[in-house]
Design goal:
- By secondary structure, the protein is an all-alpha fold.
- It is built from 23 helices and no strands.
- Helix 4 crosses helix 6, helix 6 packs across helix 7 and helix 22 packs across helix 23.
- The two termini are about 20 Å apart.
- The C terminus is likely disordered.
Length: about 500
């Protein structure tokens, strides 16, 4: 069956589409090269493994896709059974590994984890009022964990680390399954199975169940939102509003945990406006942003009525410009001096003072300096295949196991682990770039056109992170989106739409 062709009015001969994919390809080519060349804090033992591993991983993914072509019809018939076995197996593996990697809590992790426990057991999280006075952005993560812990306490389950690990493992497994479903929907079952193989070959995902913080807790929501958007495209009647409501709730919860989830909503709304028209974009915007705003306002009203003080919040909340300022110092990493500077400023006129310091730092760097700065930030932000999980796993580990020798930076096998995972991660980025270059030459179907929101969201995330504090973890909640883009671009020798995909028809709402 032939894939549904896009209408002549929607063909990719529009300058803005070609320009976007071209700019994306050039920018992320620079990201990949920066990550490969600007080694950051990688050890001498890790560098050759990453350098040699990158071409090997590229070839491995191509070979796997080529091999899957040979059994494409069988995979089409058995796809959902394969998906079910994978999701169940991955959940069990992640949960058991998380229990082996049990660890303590500290600072940010302590605030949302121990704060949620205190809230369940005492009715308040007063021990952490000062922290949330400075960092209200983590109130969503606190509330999210509180919901799980409260439910578990009703059932008599008070091993809250195990509760959080089970919740994180379930959401991570669901995110992987959604990537596969999206690849199947936009290509074929073979592509969906390739996505599952990529996750199996990416051991950083095996160990994320124990790294319970906002990065992992929000990882499900960008990819879930996009999947619901695809389903919304095909829906009619009352089902249309069911998917709109689900999209709104997904964005509301996800953006409360981590604000970067909103980037996916912006990307989808822009796609709806450019491809579906103003009426469709307004329908999406009203439902999604309306539900998101309603949930946010309700949660804030509840917390600042029953727990926190708005007066103290106005005095102590860390302004958003602080993270922009910090992102311009050195390589943009966390530094205590900028926190001291921000907190030394009176609330009245604080933002003006921060703006002035930001302008000074940009002026001092100049154009060439800013380009170099962005390349260094890109290397750190997108260049670590471990997703920085050891930031949490290293906090007071309960035991010293063989797994710790792999996942912790001072472990005997960590260089091998990070070298390989970074090579595989960079291989996915390379295929994502190749996909952008291909899409810049012209869209062949509506399935190709529907990849646009994912690419736009990844690009938006990069732009945001270049203006923000540098951290190797901050991109990770969009890792499933990046993997979907990369997997969809892996070529093979199969016949079909010219990219090795078997043809399949997808309905798409006008």
């Amino acid at each position: 069956m032939k894939r549904e062709k896009i209408s002549s009015g929607q063909r990719d001969d529009k300058t803005w589409t070609k320009v976007f994919y071209t700019v994306f390809a050039w920018c992320f080519t620079a990201v990949v090269l920066s990550a490969a060349i600007c080694a950051g804090n990688r050890s001498a033992a890790e560098l050759p493994l990453t350098a040699l591993g990158l071409p090997c991983c590229l070839c491995l993914l191509w070979a796997l896709n080529h091999a899957l072509d040979r059994c494409a019809e069988w995979l089409e018939r058995r796809y959902y059974a394969i998906l079910g076995v994978f999701a169940a197996g991955m959940f069990l593996a992640e949960y058991l590994l998380a229990l082996q990697l049990r660890h303590g809590v500290w600072f940010d992790v302590e605030a949302i984890f121990s704060g949620a426990i205190e809230w369940v057991e005492t009715g308040s999280f007063s021990t952490y009022y000062q922290y949330f006075g400075y960092f209200p952005n983590n109130l969503g993560g606190l509330t999210f964990l509180y919901g799980f812990f409260k439910t578990a306490s009703f059932l008599g389950w008070t091993d809250y680390y195990a509760v959080s690990a089970m919740a994180a493992s379930a959401m991570l497994s669901a995110a992987m399954a959604l990537v596969s479903l999206i690849c199947k929907r936009l290509a074929d079952a073979k592509c969906g199975v390739l996505a599952l193989l990529v996750f199996l070959l990416s051991p950083q995902f095996w160990f994320l169940g124990g790294a319970v913080y906002t990065d992992v807790l929000s990882m499900l929501f960008p990819i879930l939102f996009f999947y619901l958007y695809l389903r919304y495209q095909d829906s009619t009647g009352s089902r249309r509003y069911l998917f709109l409501s689900a999209m709104g709730l997904t964005m509301a919860v996800g953006s409360e945990i981590k604000c970067t989830v909103l980037i996916m909503a912006v990307a989808v709304l822009l796609h709806a406006l450019l491809r579906r028209g103003l009426v469709r974009a307004l329908e999406l915007g009203v439902w999604v942003l309306g539900i998101t705003a309603a949930v946010s306002l309700t949660l804030n009203a509840f917390l600042y009525t029953t727990q926190l003080s708005r007066e103290e919040a106005r005095e102590n909340n860390t302004p958003l410009l602080h993270w922009v300022l910090m992102g311009l110092q050195g390589d943009g990493l966390y530094n205590s001096q900028d926190y001291e500077f921000t907190r030394s400023l009176p609330a009245e006129g604080r933002n003006a003072a921060l703006w002035q310091e930001i302008r000074n730092r940009v002026r001092e760097k100049g154009l060439v300096g800013m380009v170099e700065h962005i390349l260094r930030k890109s290397a750190i932000d997108f260049g670590d295949g471990t997703y920085g999980a050891d930031d949490f796993l290293k906090i007071q580990p309960y035991e010293d196991t063989r797994l710790h020798q792999i996942v912790l930076q001072d472990g005997a096998f960590h260089n091998w682990y990070r070298g390989y995972t970074t090579a595989m991660h960079l291989a996915i980025l390379v295929y994502m770039v190749l996909g952008a270059r291909q899409l810049a030459t012209g869209l062949r179907s509506k399935q190709d056109e529907l990849r646009f929101p994912m690419y736009l969201a990844v690009f938006g995330l990069w732009v945001f992170l270049m203006a923000w504090e540098t951290n190797r973890r901050y991109f990770s909640n969009f890792a499933p989106v990046i993997i979907a883009c990369g997997v969809l671009a892996v070529p093979s020798g199969g016949k079909g739409n010219g990219t090795g995909r078997n043809d399949r028809r997808e309905k798409s709402a006008s």
